[in-house]
Amino acid sequence: MNLALKDTLHAPTRFALTTLGIAFLVMAVIGMTGLYRGIVEDALLIIDRIDADLWVVQGKRAGPFAEGSAVAADMDRRVEGVPGVADVRRFTQFSQQFSFAGAPRRATVTGVDVPRDNGHWLSLAEGRWLGGSRYEAVADASTGLKVDDRIQLARDVYTIVGLTRHMVDSAGDGLLFVGINDAAVIARRRTSEEIHLARAAGTGAGAVSADASSVAQDSKISAVLVRLDPAADTARVIATLQRWGDVRVMTTGEQRDLMLNARLWKLRLQILTFTGMILLITAIVVSLIVYTMTLEKLHVIALLKLMGARESVVVRLIGQQAALIGIAGYALAVVLAWMIFPFFPRRVVMLPPDLAQIALALAIVCTVAAWVGIARASQVEAREVLS
Amino acid sequence: MSGAPVLSVRSLSRHYATGGGLVRALDGVSLDVAAGELVGIFGPSGSGKSTFLMLAGLLENPTSGEVWLAGERVSHADADLDSLREIRRKRIGFVFQKANLIPFLSAVENIALGLELADVAPADAHAHGRRLLAALDLVHRADHLPAKLSGGEQQRVAVARALANAPPLILADEPTAALDSVRGRQVMEIFRRIAGTRGAAVLVITHDPRSTDLFDRIVHFEDGRICVGKVDR
């Protein structure tokens, strides 16, 4: 007979509460790990999906994600002429607050170069991609917008023509795709007073200031995305573009590296530290539970020894109970995670390898806890039944 | 005394060193118990009765002396207690003042456990457990947890458990102390029956003078020794 199972079923409420407690701890570990994965995935979403080989950004800057970047509005035409370049697209991205249904909303406006960019790199959940006409937008569902909704950005009203899912920036704000020219207009939004003051300043004899730049300072184009010919020599194209001096060229790999190891480094470190702490707390709690359960059974263990039970019977009793708690806690944690995490404001990505590693960590914790319990049980002597 | 001794102890001593000096809990006790014999051990508290049961039950090593079971020397001062588990499992049944049933097992499971520990198939173990409960008029309580049984019923289940492996030696330590006179008498009669019908050697440590008529022999302990001239019957 399975003594561990018998003992467990003897006090089902206690087992259920213990399992629930462990499940919540494991769920927190799954959540922290998933949050980390979600943040990394969100941050790399555009970089990985937009299908660019090279990013041409403002010179001596690490734009457009890790640093601000502005390139000349006609930079795409200059880049297009370089041998080895297959096609180019202009790109910009910035945060935008707007009002919808009487409530303030946030979105990250992403200017894409329609019609050159046909949106093949993202999947629409609903509606259609941007057509050639102005004042259309494709929104992520996380913005709370739906197809045919109309929103005001700067001085214009945009119609939502398509919806994406799970397309957010590194801060978790949903992406709002508009044509690059519309994006430039939205970014240039100014008050009437600002315009008057700018005009007044512009009448100052047309003097060239000391920090005059080849890049128009009101340019809202952050980067030019380049796809190379399959036969092109990447290093040669980069060298050609860098020789211009006013741009910096980065590969997709460099953009990924900048995003993960510069912009998100502290956040990643903090999340991983918290994950480690929760895992440690889980280990301590599980160990205490298994050890306490062993202490409560010392009399039974002494009786088993008195009856001549082999040590393996005692080892199985403790080991199986630790395993039972671990397996039930883990299974419940995964179920709860699937049910609860979709309602979290940030995406929690549960990857099978992460779940497997957490299961392995829990298995190790349970094994160590059971070993501690077994070590205590091995000190019990049969004669203790009489005490 | 009839038949070969099932239990034979020779010059058994157990001494403890304490702050106040050496305590001689048991001091040179020799005793034989034969198959089919019901022996009562009487004596005041601290006389060495329980220490004797510990040593005879292979739960503790003697300081000196030997314990023999069916002609085999099994315990002595240097014996490995852990290796004596198998002998306990196969050859000794224990009954205590408290029934000491496992709380999360039913009556029949408590009995079957002893058999399963000896590698008997679960179905056979349960069937034998029910037979034993039937013999003790308890089969109707077979599936009840110990908490649902009365003190007398629990003690009878404990007796059934001790009998499960048909051990040649039953050791009982104050088995009737927690029972009223009627139930105490019932339990002692069961021991009498076990010794008579199963041929087991039964050694009962007790304070209870109400069932002395059932014993084949009564041994008195005092100050860790068998009182000379007080071995009755």
Quaternary = heterodimer
The helix-strand sequence of chain A is: HHEHEEEEEEEHHEHEHHHHH
Number of helices of chain A: 11
Topology, number of strands of chain B: 10
Q: Write out the CATH superfamily name of chain B.
A: P-loop containing nucleotide triphosphate hydrolases
Number of domains of chain A: 2
- What is the structural class of chain A? alpha+beta
- Uncertain runs of chain A are 205-216
Mean pLDDT of chain A: 86
Give a verbal description of the structure:
The complex is a heterodimer of chains A (387) and B (233). Chain A is of the alpha+beta class and 387 residues long. Chain A has 11 helices and 10 strands. Chain A folds into 2 domains: 3-42 and 266-386, no CATH class; 60-197 and 213-245, no CATH class. Chain A has helices at 3-10, 12-49, 75-80, 180-187, 192-202, 234-242, 252-263, 265-296, 298-306, 311-340, 352-378; strands at residues 54-58, 85-100, 103-112, 126-127, 136-140, 150-153, 156-164, 175-179, 223-228, 247-251. In chain A, strands 1, 2, 3, 4, 5, 6, 7, 8, 9 and 10 form a 10-stranded mixed beta sheet that branches. Chain A is elongated. Chain B is 30% helix and 28% strand. Chain B has a single domain (35-62, 80-226), classed as P-loop containing nucleotide triphosphate hydrolases (Rossmann fold, 3-Layer(aba) Sandwich), CATH 3.40.50. Chain B has a 6-stranded mixed beta sheet. In chain B, strands 2-1-4-5 form a 4-stranded antiparallel beta sheet. In chain B, a hairpin with a 2-residue loop joins β1 and β2 (21-34). The mean pLDDT of chain B is 87. Classes of the chains: A alpha+beta (387), B alpha/beta (233). The interface between A and B is medium-sized, with 24 and 30 residues. Chain B: Residues 7-231 form the ABC transporter domain.
